[in-house]
């Protein structure tokens, strides 16, 4: 029996200044959301009434707010989609057979391709309001985030420790309880990391999707991306600089106020049961923890939580606890046959559509353009590797420098490269750089950081005793690289290379056609092909271009990356 | 009163490429009655964990029936709770929430849940740690939470799956003693215990009945009644005799388990039938482990003949020690009888000689006594370039073992073959090659 009240109990009733701050922050947040949301409902009657973007920098906070809101709505949709799709795939063998290959295909389709295909449909869906454009933009961001997150969640569900899963069955947790107590918590950390990375990449697609021309009409969605587009149109370098600064501030704010607290909070979901290791910290989380209001609200809502728990348990029922017996081979074969027929039918219809409308000569032409873009992607990878790997390794070998620079590189990776494009374009025009080469540089602006980032991470994983050994036996220069560093960072390089090449293919659609005011530079490549087909609303060419680009990505994955990955796993695993 | 009975249960998994089935359990029958502690004792591969999971309803048997309170078992068994080897605690829940888990699933109201959990936490001696997270606790305390989580449900039967084997020796001893005290005091929250273990002393100390399982395929070889006053006194002559007897039984897979310690002679040559060399599994030990054991036995001389004593001195559990002994016997370096182990002249020689000579000796013994190794060697010699993909041999093992075990067999064979310089293995190309 404890007679004396615990110190925690005494503290519980007192509200402090941190409570005031938390309350203010919550109210501000609600206000901001309401303001950004209401603006999305303004009247929009294309082509007569279209929203315009003012280049006055004082409007930038407002535009940034609306763009950020789009990012978060997309993130919410991605999370919801991830939880449903991942659970279905992990728990239903038949669904898994369709959903996982489908996911593999979807993530090879260029993100801006989704935008090209869907934007007209979305506009038609919400006549007379901006909602259609909003939805198209959000959908583009959604497609840039969601596949990674879904894969990560599915993987986590498949690798829930066996004994924990058995305990959940034996203690008769309902399907909902299993999901909320076991599966979601154990998937949280990888899911959060993936979401954070994808969110960073999402800014690029946000900027690209806010100002897009489809069917010979330019659509503008007020936001920081369309601000940049308008500045380019008006050749206003001053406004561009303001946009870059604003973007940097927004990324920093989102990181400090949203991701960092989440990452620090999610540390409790680490599966290894021992302490140790450095745990991430966040001043925002510390503030919220020192405030009493969140705890009070939590305590007040506990009975409601209990009721919801019961309701969802009753609704979703109990999972079948045992490994279901494999279904009869005959019905399984029939099922496989059905899937095969459906896929074959769809492919045949698509090929038929393309061949009938554009003809084989056009396919050959587009394929040649694809080869051009492929060469650009490969040159980019070689260049980025040659430049950034030595720098990354040098940084990674110095722990203090790495700790200092890693957030910076992360920031650079999530800064939308298309904000820098206008400056580069201006440079190309003045220095007479042919855009065929210049576009490589543009594609690299966004994707090179993955190579650098992974080189740093890879170098950090090389054990220091191996490096001491190398010093000891006198490995120097080229030999040191061949015997120690390259094998040591190989796995990390493969990861960085896959990400960079995916990013480069995506970026090609906006990198191979760039403009400054009235001047437009167009490179010969599949990205430019898709961009032009989209602006003309030429459906067969859009389909052909996107289909071919997906094929190139899948082909590159199968032929190169998968093998390198297997090699990394097999031979160079540290 | 019978709480759980297992009636002629078998479990088989399909082998890769439709090559038939791999039998994990074959025709097992067993009962757990009210008021008794039963231990399932077996070496790895005896299917003891599979049997436990079948009884818990986590795995469906291929054949046979499990009855719980006379009713055929459907789904997971509601009348039991399990304590896991790895504790299986949810790291993001506090001790209190972990203990409440099973109650929450039964929709027990919040206040009652709290009270019952506090009581269970009290029983296992963790008061004051209710709000701690598992990662703040030591291994022994974590397993106490595991016990509390099971106790709070007041199950009819408590299942324990090697509950002490993830703990260090002293912590395990301490917790084992406390659980035994709790049982002996008559205040135990369940009316029976079924414990799976590979620790012989632990089985004899805790159980009223020890059921011995055999391997390949898993089956029940017999059972031993302990018949000692509780708590079982480790210094009692019968206790020592029982432990010795169990060691004898466990080191001789071919003798019958009669249930009482008496003079038993192994029934030799019973299993040396004309099956494929790939059907007889190699014990998974490294050559270094074998020579280490032999050297130690040689140094200690006659002082270390007793296998229980050897296990204690080496701090090795049965699952680690017995494969070493198996390998030493298979290679003709040692002989095992009546819970004692003795070096053969070849073993003496191997333990004392130089590296080069010991390699020769090892090669000679391997070729003479391990059919699968000489078979691989002969096959390689028939090839013009003396080389063959390892997949070929993997396929031979695949006929008798699941893929994972076939791969372990190959890994062990490669280790022995490399040491004996019978063949070389290129991991990159996956080829076995005769030494040039």
Overview of the molecule:
The complex is a heterodimer of chains A (574) and B (436). Chain A has 574 residues and is mainly α. Chain A has two domains: 54-271, MetI-like fold (Orthogonal Bundle), CATH 1.10.3720; 330-574, MetI-like fold (Orthogonal Bundle). Chain A is 77% helix and 3% strand. Chain A has helices at 7-12, 17-39, 60-91, 93-106, 111-125, 131-158, 162-170, 175-210, 224-233, 237-266, 283-290, 293-316, 329-396, 399-414, 421-431, 435-461, 464-472, 477-511, 526-536, 539-570, and strands at residues 211-214, 217-220, 513-516, 519-522. Chain A has a two-stranded antiparallel ribbon with strand order 1-2. In chain A, strands 3-4 form a two-stranded antiparallel ribbon. In chain A, strand 1 and strand 2 (217-220) form a beta hairpin. Chain A is globular and about 65 Å long. The termini of chain A are far apart. With 436 residues, chain B is an alpha/beta fold. Chain B has three domains: 2-79 and 155-251, Rossmann fold; 277-352, Arc Repressor Mutant, subunit A (Orthogonal Bundle), CATH 1.10.10; 371-433, no CATH class. In chain B, 42% of the residues lie in helices and 19% in strands. In chain B, strand 9 (209-214) and strand 10 (219-225) form a beta hairpin. Mean pLDDT of chain B is 87; it is low at 263-273.
CATH fold-level name of the largest domain in chain B: Rossmann fold
Structural class of chain A: mainly alpha
- Secondary-structure element pattern of chain B, one letter each: EEEHEEEHHHEHEHEEHHHHEEHHHEHHEE
- The helix-strand sequence of chain A is HHHHHHHHEEHHHHHHHHHHEEHH
What's the CATH topology name of the largest domain in chain A?
MetI-like fold
Q: Low-confidence stretches of chain A at least 5 residues in length (pLDDT < 50)?
A: 1-7
> Globular, elongated, flat, extended or rod-shaped: what is the shape of chain A?
globular
Distance between the termini of chain A: 53 Å
Q: Kindly report how far apart the N and C termini of chain B lie.
A: 68 Å
For the biggest β-sheet of chain B, the strand order reads 6-7-8-3-9-10
Low-confidence stretches of chain B: 263-273
DSSP helix count of chain B? 15
CATH architecture of the largest domain in chain B: 3-Layer(aba) Sandwich
- Please tell me what the overall shape of chain B is: globular
């Amino acid at each position: 029996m404890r007679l004396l009240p615990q110190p925690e109990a005494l503290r519980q009733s007192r509200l402090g200044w941190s409570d005031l701050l938390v309350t203010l922050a919550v109210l501000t947040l609600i206000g901001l959301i309401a303001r950004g949301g209401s603006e999305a409902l303004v009247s929009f009657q294309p082509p007569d009434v279209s929203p315009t973007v003012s280049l006055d920098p004082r409007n930038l906070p407002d535009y940034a707010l609306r763009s950020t809101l789009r990012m978060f709505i997309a993130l919410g949709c991605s999370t919801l989609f991830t939880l449903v799709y991942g659970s279905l795939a992990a728990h239903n063998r038949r669904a898994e057979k369709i959903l996982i290959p489908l996911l593999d295909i979807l993530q090879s389709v260029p993100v801006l391709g989704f935008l090209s295909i869907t934007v007209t449909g979305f506009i038609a869906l919400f006549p007379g309001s901006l909602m259609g454009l909003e939805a198209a933009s959000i959908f583009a961001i959604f497609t840039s985030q969601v596949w990674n997150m879904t894969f990560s969640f599915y993987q986590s569900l498949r690798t829930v420790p066996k004994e924990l899963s058995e305990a959940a069955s034996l203690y008769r947790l309902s399907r909902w309880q299993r999901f909320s107590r076991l599966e979601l918590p154990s998937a949280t950390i990888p899911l959060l990391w993936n979401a954070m990375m994808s969110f960073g990449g999402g800014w690029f697609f946000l900027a690209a999707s806010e100002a897009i021309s489809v069917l010979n009409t330019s659509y503008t969605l007020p936001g920081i991306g369309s601000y940049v587009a308008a500045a380019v149109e008006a050749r206003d370098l001053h406004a561009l600089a303001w946009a870059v600064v604003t973007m940097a501030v927004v990324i920093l704010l989102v990181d400090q106020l949203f991701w960092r607290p989440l990452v620090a909070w999610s540390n409790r979901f680490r599966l290894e049961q021992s302490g140790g290791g450095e745990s991430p910290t966040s001043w925002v989380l510390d503030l919220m923890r020192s405030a009493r209001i969140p705890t009070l609200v939590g305590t007040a809502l506990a009975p409601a939580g209990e009721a919801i728990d019961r309701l969802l348990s009753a609704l979703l029922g109990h999972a079948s606890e045992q490994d279901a017996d494999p279904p009869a081979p005959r019905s399984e074969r029939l099922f496989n046959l059905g899937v095969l027929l459906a896929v074959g039918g769809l492919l045949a219809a698509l090929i038929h559509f393309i061949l009938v409308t554009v003809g084989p000569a056009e396919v050959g032409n587009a394929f040649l353009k694809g080869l051009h873009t492929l060469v650009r992607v490969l040159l980019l990878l070689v260049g980025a590797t040659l430049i950034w790997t030595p720098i990354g390794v040098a940084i990674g070998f110095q722990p203090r420098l790495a700790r200092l620079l890693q957030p910076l590189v992360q920031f650079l990776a999530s800064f939308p490269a298309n904000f820098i494009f206008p400056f580069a374009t201006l440079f190309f025009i003045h220095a007479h750089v042919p855009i065929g080469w210049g576009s490589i540089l543009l594609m690299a602006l966004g994707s090179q950081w993955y190579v650098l980032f992974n080189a740093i991470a890879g170098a950090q994983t090389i054990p220091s005793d191996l490096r001491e050994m190398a010093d000891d036996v006198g490995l120097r220069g080229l030999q040191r690289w061949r015997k120690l560093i390259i094998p040591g960072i190989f796995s990390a390089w493969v990861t960085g290379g896959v990400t960079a090449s995916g990013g480069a293919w995506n970026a090609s659609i906006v990198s191979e056609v760039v403009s400054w005011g009235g001047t437009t530079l167009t490179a010969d490549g599949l990205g430019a092909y898709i961009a032009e087909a989209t602006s003309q609303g030429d459906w067969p060419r859009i389909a052909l271009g996107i289909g071919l680009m997906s094929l190139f990505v899948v082909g590159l994955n199968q032929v190169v990356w998968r093998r390198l990955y297997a090699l990394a796993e097999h031979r160079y695993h540290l | 009163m019978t709480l759980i009975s297992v009636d002629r249960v078998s479990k088989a998994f399909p082998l890769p490429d439709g090559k038939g089935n791999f039998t994990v359990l074959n025709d097992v029958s067993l009962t757990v009655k009210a008021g008794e502690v039963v231990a399932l004792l077996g070496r790895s591969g005896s299917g003891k964990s599979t049997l436990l999971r079948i009884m818990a309803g986590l795995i469906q048997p291929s054949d046979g029936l499990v009855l719980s309170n006379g009713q055929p078992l459907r789904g997971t068994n509601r009348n039991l709770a399990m304590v896991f080897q790895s504790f299986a605690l949810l790291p993001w829940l506090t001790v209190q929430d972990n203990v409440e888990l099973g109650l929450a699933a039964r929709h027990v109201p919040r206040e009652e849940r709290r009270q019952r959990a506090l009581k269970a936490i009290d029983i296992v001696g963790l008061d004051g740690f209710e709000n701690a997270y598992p990662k703040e606790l030591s291994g022994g305390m974590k397993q106490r939470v595991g016990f509390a989580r099971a106790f709070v449900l007041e199950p009819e039967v408590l299942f324990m799956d090697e509950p002490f084997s993830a703990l260090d020796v002293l912590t395990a001893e301490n917790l084992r003693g406390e659980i035994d005290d709790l049982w002996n005091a008559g205040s135990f929250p369940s009316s029976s215990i079924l414990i799976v273990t590979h620790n012989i002393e632990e089985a004899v100390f805790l159980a009223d009945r020890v059921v011995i399982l055999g391997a390949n395929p898993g089956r029940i070889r017999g059972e031993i009644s302990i018949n000692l006053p509780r708590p079982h006194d480790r210094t009692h002559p019968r206790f020592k005799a029982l432990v010795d007897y169990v060691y004898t039984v466990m080191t001789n897979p071919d003798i019958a388990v009669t249930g009482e310690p008496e003079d038993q002679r192994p029934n030799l040559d019973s299993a040396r039938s004309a099956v494929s060399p790939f059907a007889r599994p190699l014990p998974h030990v490294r050559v270094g482990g074998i020579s280490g054991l032999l050297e130690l036995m040689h140094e200690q001389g006659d002082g270390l003949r007793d296998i229980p004593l050897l296990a204690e001195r080496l701090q090795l559990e049965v699952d680690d020690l017995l494969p070493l002994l198996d390998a030493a016997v298979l290679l003709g370096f040692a002989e095992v009888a009546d819970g004692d182990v003795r070096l053969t002249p070849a073993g003496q020689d191997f333990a004392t000689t130089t590296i080069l000579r010991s390699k020769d000796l090892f090669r000679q013994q391997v070729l003479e006594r391990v059919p699968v190794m000489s078979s691989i060697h002969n096959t390689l010699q028939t090839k013009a370039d003396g080389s063959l993909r390892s997949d070929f041999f993997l396929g031979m093992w695949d006929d008798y073992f699941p893929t994972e075990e076939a791969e372990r067999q190959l890994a062990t064979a490669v280790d022995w073959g490399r040491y004996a310089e019978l063949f070389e293995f290129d991991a990159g190309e996956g080829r076995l090659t005769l030494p040039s």
